[in-house]
Structures are given as structure tokens and as C-alpha cells.
Amino acid sequence: MNKDEISIIILAAGKGSRMKSPKAKVLHNISGKPMLYHIIKASQELSNDITVVIAHQKEAVVEQMQNYFDNINFCIQDSDNFPGTGGAMKNVSPKNEKVLVLNGDMPLITADALQGFIDTKADIIMSIFDLENPDGYGRVIIENSQVQKIVEQKDASKAQLQVSTVNAGIYAFSKSVIEKYIPLLSNDNAQKEYYLTDVISMAKEDGLNISPLLVDENSFKGVNSKKDLSDSEIIMQDKIKTAWMNAGVIMQLPSTIYIEESVTFEGECIVENGCRITGNTLITNSNIKAGSVIEDSIVKNSDVGPLAHLRPASYIEDTHIGNFVEVKKSSLKGVKAGHLSYIGDSQVDEGTNIGAGVITCNYDGKNKYKTIIGKNVFLGSDSQLVAPVTIEDDVMIAAGTTVTSGKVEKGSLAISRTKLRFIKDFYYKFFSN
Ligand code: UD1
Ligand code: CA
Questions:
Q1: Is the pLDDT of residue 404 over 90?
Q2: Is the CB–ligand 1 distance for residue 210 below 6 Å?
Q3: What is the DSSP code (8-state) at residue 57?
Q4: Which of 26, 58, 162, 433 is deepest in the core (most CB within 10 A)?
């Protein structure tokens, strides 16, 4: 089947009260992107007709998704009168005969994992898995190897709660099944909601063919609580890191490393334990040492850390960044910055050495200013460069100097120090009784 033959409906209108958050559940992040982003991205590989059902915080959901996607339909659920996953289906109008319905709280889903719903032939295909702890999921009641119905946890009897086969929350329906059964749903249950899952028992009574598809929790896990969010994050991180290790990245203690899905590596890279790498970061042939944080930056042929922080828009090439160095919106090419520095809104050229404790003073309390540092500059320890300032090539800045001149000319030494004094026996006088 091609993308023009399949419609996908994603249910994202719920309150998500178990999340205990002011933020809509589907907007909580997994590996740097909202849960709903991951589901739409997977869906786009399979369909050109994607509808997201919204209600709770609908403006925020639409606004965030429009940052990433431009060809998504949004459909508003009348959640006051028709709450629940069945209520969410009331106003949808899919274009195609084959319709996949996905819960919006399943961030681990992939296009590959959904392929079975497209290949299987049945009136209804539903996803099931067996769990040691089925808590929170709808239980799937199977008799004589036939699915009879789905019972929600809150409606389940004691015996039904023991059932470990659960509804994973993804279905393939034909459009006609949706058109026939959604209007017939009632809210006669513990939560007074219209359950999409009740379509199964109605269809079963009418003799329709219902095919359960056994799926893997690693792709189909639902997120209801913050604990589920972190469990899913661990699974997603494991997938991301495994893929990069298979592509040639060396990772020491990968379970301690966090890498967002938007990060890219090239060539031979090493990422040591405890690193956090986020945003649109590209790392090429570099060693990222323990405990470093890199955000939205480019690092080429360099070593960074341990315990360094590259903030957004840093460009680091052929450079050594040592411990406790923070770089922000700066480009460093062929530079050494070994210890304890802040380099912000700066451009630093080849052969330059940034001594311990050098600080670019880029902010005067109102505005930010640039620091330009040329080639082969020696910046002595504990010097401050008050921006805007240009340090031309071949300059020496003496240790402890505060540069306020706006410019230091090529070849010169800048030195600002108070005269060193000695007061003989001061120590003994000061501490004598
Ligand atoms: C649902 C299933 C349950 C299944 C589980 C799998 C129902 C009634 N139950 O339960 O059998 O085991 O998923 O994860 O379907 N939503 C709306 N509008 C609403 C309510 C929910 O769009 O009025 C959306 C939510 O935003 C969410 C999805 O539907 O993305 C699922 O809702 P949720 O409340 O999480 O359902 P579960 O209780 O997990
Ligand atoms: Ca859920």
C-alpha cells in the first residue's frame, strides 16, 4: 500500500491528568522532542493523510507541531459532550478506506513497527502485548482464541484485572467500521467516557473479523505518568545510542550518556561517560570527555572536556577545550582553551592560547557585544576582555590584565596591574593574639 491509500488519526486531545503537569501530556519531551512529534514523524513515512485530534491546550499543540510539520490536519474534539478516545473519533473524516488510529502518548512508535497493521487483512486489527505488570492498560479478553472485548482498568472485575494481555492502543479499521460504530458508542462506564475500545465488542457481536497483532513494548509503550515518561526515555535513548555505536561512535558507559535524536556524528568520535549532547549538534572526528554538555553546536577534529559546556551556536574546529570552559555563540579554530574560561559572542583564530581564567565580558547589563581575537595571541591567565574589543594577531595579554581599550594592536603587549608591594612581617603582626 502506498502513502495515498492510508489515513492516520492520532488521538491527542486528552487531559493527561495522570501526568500531573500544567503542560499537555503529548507535548512532554522524549529525547528532545514532544511525544506527539515522534508519532507524527513515524506516521509521515506511511501516510499523506494525517489528522491529529486535539482539545486540551489545543493552541499550544497546534503551534508546536506547526514548527515541525506543515501538512497535518487538526480536528477538534467536543470533549465536553463526548469525552474519551471514542469521543475523539466523532468528528474525524479520513480520506482513505484503510485507517490507522494511534494514541498520541506512544512516542516509541516507528514506521517499521506499524507495518504489520498495513500488511494484515481483517476488518479490525488491534495491538496487544503481554505484560508482567499490566497496570493502567485496558485488558484484552480472549475466549476460544478470539478477541471478545477490551475492558478498561477502571471497569475491570478482580478476575479481569489479572489478565496480562493488554491493549497497546493502536488499531487499523476500515473507514466503514469507523462510520458505523463510532456513533453507536455509549458512555455507560466507570469514567463516563466514550471508549474507542468498545468498538471491538460491538464488531465482535456483529461477526466481524478482529485480528490481534502481538507487538513489542519497546515500540508501543504508552505514557500516562512521569514514571512512564522516564521509562520511555530510557528505551528511546537506548535506540539512539545503539544506532550511533553501530554507525561507529565509541561510547564509554552509554547508560550515563544522553543524546537527542537531532544530534549527528561523523567519522571516529568518542563520547565519554556522563555527557549530554542536545539540539542540532554535529560532531566530527572528536573526543567528548566525561561530564561535558554540548547544545546546538558544531565540533570538528577537537577534544572537549572533561566538564566543559558548549552552549548554542558554538563552532569548534581543530581546538582543545579543557575542563570548566564555557563557550557560547563563538567560533574557535585552531585554539587551545585548557581551563576555567568563559568565551561568549567571540571569534578566536588559529594558534591562539586562552589561559586559565580568561573571561570575555560580553554583557554590560543591557546589551551583548563581540570579542574578536586574531591569530597566535597569548591571553594570560585571569585576564578579562571587555567587549566590544578586537585583539589583533600576535598580541600578548599579560596575566591579570583587564582590556578595556576596544582594540589591541598587532604585535603589542597589553598589561594592566597594580604595583606589587611587600609589607615585612605583616603576617606575624596580624595574627599575634
Ligand atoms: C487507552 C485504551 C486502553 C489501552 C491504552 C494503551 C481507551 C478507552 N483505552 O487507555 O485500552 O490499553 O490506551 O496505551 O481507549 N484522548 C483523546 N481524547 C480524550 C481522551 C484521550 O484524544 O477524550 C487521547 C489522549 O490524548 C491519548 C490517547 O487518547 O493520547 C489515549 O488516552 P489515555 O487517556 O492515555 O488512554 P488510556 O487510559 O491509556
Ligand atoms: Ca495512555
A1: yes
A2: no
A3: B
A4: 26
- Measured between alpha carbons, how far is 195 from 212 in angstroms, rounded to an integer? 18
13 lines ligand 1 (CB under 6 A): yes
- Confirm if 183 and 202 have CB atoms less than 8 A apart: no
What's the predicted TM-score (pTM) here? Answer: 0.95
Contacts of 408 (CB under 8 A, 6+ apart): 389, 390, 391, 392, 395, 397, 414
* CB of 224 shorter than 6 A to ligand 1: yes
Confidence of residue 145 (pLDDT cuts 50, 70, 90): confident
pLDDT digits (tens, 9 = 90+) for 95-113: 999 999 999 999 999 999 9
The CB-based long-range contact list for 68-72 (8 Å cut-off, 24+ gap) reads 68/33, 68/37, 68/40, 68/41, 69/40, 69/44, 72/40
The answer to whether 170 and 127 have CB atoms below 8 angstroms apart is yes
Instruction: Please provide residue 286's backbone torsions phi and psi, each rounded to the nearest 5 degrees.
Output: -135, 160
Q: Residue 370 burial (CB < 10 Å; 0-12/13-18/19+)?
A: middle
8 Å CB contact between 72 and 54? no
153 close to 165: Cβ distance less than 8 angstroms: no
Are the CB atoms for 228 and 18 separated by under 8 Å? no
Q: Count H helices, E strands: the chain?
A: 9, 37
Q: Give yes or no for a cis peptide into 254 (omega within 30° of 0).
A: no
- Which residues 6+ apart lie within 8 Å of 184 measured at CB? 202
Which residues of 15-119 form beta strands (DSSP E)?
Answer: 29-30, 33-34, 49-54, 73-76, 98-103
Tell me the CA–centroid distance for residue 83 and ligand 2, in Å: 14
Tell me how long the chain is.
Answer: 433
**Annotated catalytic residue 38:** no
Domains of the chain: 6-214 (3.90.550.10), 226-414 (2.160.10.10)
Could you tell me if 334 and 351 are in contact, meaning their C-beta atoms sit under 8 angstroms apart?
A: yes
Compute how many other C-beta atoms are within 10 angstroms of the C-beta atom of residue 398. 15
Q: To which H or E segment does residue 2 belong? A: none
Q: How far apart are alpha carbons 14 and 242 in whole angstroms?
A: 33
User: Kind and range of the H or E element at 290?
Assistant: none
Q: What is the pLDDT of residues 411-431, one digit of tens each?
A: 999 999 899 999 999 999 999
54 and 73 in contact (C-beta within 8 Å)?
no
**Residue from 15, 56, 81, 103 whose mutation best tests the ligand 1 pocket (most atoms within 8 A of CB):** 103
- Looking at the CA of 86, name the nearest ligand: 1
